[in-house]
Amino acid sequence: MNFLFRYANPHEFMRLSGAVLPVFAVATALCLAIGLYLGFSVPPDYQQGTTVILMFIHVPADVVAELAYGAIAVCSLLSLVWRHPLSDTAARAAAPFGAMFTALGLVTGALWGKPMWGTYWVWDARLTSFLLLLFLYFGYMALWNAIEDETRAARACAILALVGMVNIPIIKFSVDWWSTLHQGESIMSGKIAPVYLAPLLIMMLGYVLLFLTLWMVRIRTAILERRARNLMREAAA
Amino acid sequence: MISSLTAEKLACARGERQLFDGLSFRVRAGQALAVEGANGAGKTSLLRLIAGFLAPAAGRILVKTGDNESDDAEERGRQVGWLGHLDGLKPQMTVGEQLSFYARLYAVGDADLPSVLAQVGLGARAEFPCRYLSAGQRRRLALARLVVSRRPLWLLDEPFAALDTSGQALVSHLMARHCGDGGIIIAATHDPLGLGNESLKL
Amino acid sequence: MSAFVTLLLRDIRLAARSGGSAALALSFFALVATLVPLGVGADLHLLSRVAGGVLWVGAVLSALLSLDRLFQGDFEDGSLDLIALSPLALELTALAKIAAHWLSTGLPLTLLSPLLALLFNLPGPATAILFVSLLIGTPAVSAIGAIGASLTLSLKRGGLILPLIILPLLSPAVIFGAGAVQAALDGMAAKDALGLLAAFATASVLLSPFAAAACVRLNLGG
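Predict the joint structure of the above. Result:
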């Protein structure tokens, strides 16, 4: 816990992230490049044909979509319980990226499913859960924007994020239950052939690094914005 | 019965503004404290801090009851009789219903409500819906609620506001009686309390 | 306990006197039940198949209408300050308000549902299940709605954000509730769905007061 608090100081965070950011950016680019290259060069799936490349774009997006919400929940807990000062900024910064990856997952999921289903959307259990997750992100971001007092907004959103975190397993369970009633197992779950595993894992790593990189940049921007606002306030006084 | 309330090095910030810092005072049973200051100086914030709505940025508030001394905000809140800016009255409820509601909520029973209403000059208005009350009458009802709550620590925000001379005299009388009974009063006010009290300037 | 009942009765009385939030919710519910057939056509067979879902969604939306005022009224006129200082714990205050909201909104909606089920040609046994599912599930709507209400307490136009926040959280209730009706329609036992709904509702009612109280405290300190 002390380790986390060492970087609670915005100065420290700026220093550390400034040093680490180029490394992350390069690693992200490398992973994505390698992953995509491998993805394009795998043998086509007997069932899905060449659209299997979409799996490499879709599955990691889903992984990061959930990871981002988890990150927001952890930051919210840090904010509420331990009053960690940067965690509010971090939570708010993560949300748009979480929403983007969720939306990416939905679009690529629909594209990936069309050859199999014949249509873009069949209320597949996994995709439906992610659609609800997208709404959770929208609600979270809307609440941040709606409450004017920043401290109050931070605390309210922290509570909302934790309530959402508790609910997500329940929502997923209920959507799964609903889906098996109507149409059997989700078409998108299932075993991954070993030859696909390597590109998939590399892409997942690439996406996670991408999220972390973007997140860091956004937190830095938020810290700089706050500094600018404080300077303006002092100048006006 | 509270024997004393001690504030130690209280600091309060609203948003990014520091309102006050290092504030210390003590009020004993039977005493009153007037909090003075310009608008926006933090008088209401101090009252809300004492009531336990706000947490101080630094420092603490100790309440001594008998041999016990505690800085728990919730416990302190249960000792507070609150008279704020807003009157907390529902337009659709009658005077009697409002007072009875608060009496029951504060677990003090509604036996002697008619006499309290008479004391504040609303004895004849018990059946009136609150929407027909004037500002001064609302204040009087709020004072009745204060008296009924039987709380030892009175936190009053501008107690003389919206009242005519007889209303102000009523407030002074009630405050004097409360202190005489061993209660504590902390009031944010622009006018003198007239209770031989201390003054705190923010 | 008597402080709890006092607050509960007051909130019900206030709801009754402000032109009745019940009347508004019931009208809205009936309107939704009228508009959908206008939209999808009067094929009775089709309507009976969608009745569970449409009426459940309609009930949830109708119950939402009065939620944004759950704490806001008391917050704006200073009553919430006084209630917070009472011996009643804030969590119990939240629970009392949830109960009052259900009694003045959720319960009337449930009582109206068999009549609306008639409009959808829902057979008797399925209507009974619809009634039971709403009876069990609408408390969850009030409970989770209270969390949204306390989060948006200080917002002037919080009424727009509140549905956005809580509707995703209420999807399990809609799924299990309408699922129960569907099971009854298909001649199967609805008890699985009702059991899940009951578990969800119980958990919501037990846990929501804590979240709502935390949000109220947050806003009182503002």
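Chain B has six helices and nine strands.
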